[in-house]
Amino acid sequence: MIFAIEGLLISLEYFKMQKNTKLQSALDKANSDKDLLGQRLVQAERDLQSARAEVQGIYVLWNKSLESEKTMRHELHVAKTQLTYLAQKVIQGVPAPKVSPQAAYWDTQERTAEVAVSKNVHRESYQANMDFL
Predict the structure, then answer these.
(1) What is the pTM of this model?
(2) Separation CA 30–CA 23 (nearest Å)
(3) Is residue 22 included in any domain, yes or no?
(4) Which one of 32, 39, 88, 133 has the minimum C-beta count within 10 Å?
(5) What residue ranges carry the coiled-coil annotation (predicted)?
């Protein structure tokens, strides 16, 4: 009888050890899954930050394009006004101002300087727009 009880106790201990090893392997697998999910979370957060930076860049470009459109619309309005004024003057028969066929020396120098300044402004504007990249 004592042998039967001891056999029963030994078998119970054996089943407990089997259960503990299964639990330990499940715990190890859960820990490895947790580590893997942690790595994926860190990568997802990096990707999110990168996407936010890209969206911010898109917003900057959008705002610049809106400002450019506003400027161009204003310039178009000014040009329309000037053309309307000139058309009215032509219709009224006001003679056009006389322009000498040969440009004076200072006029050519001023135009050359204006073109150089204009090119420099466009270059600086392009570089400023590309800085965010």
Answers:
(1) 0.42
(2) 10
(3) yes
(4) 133
(5) 27-54
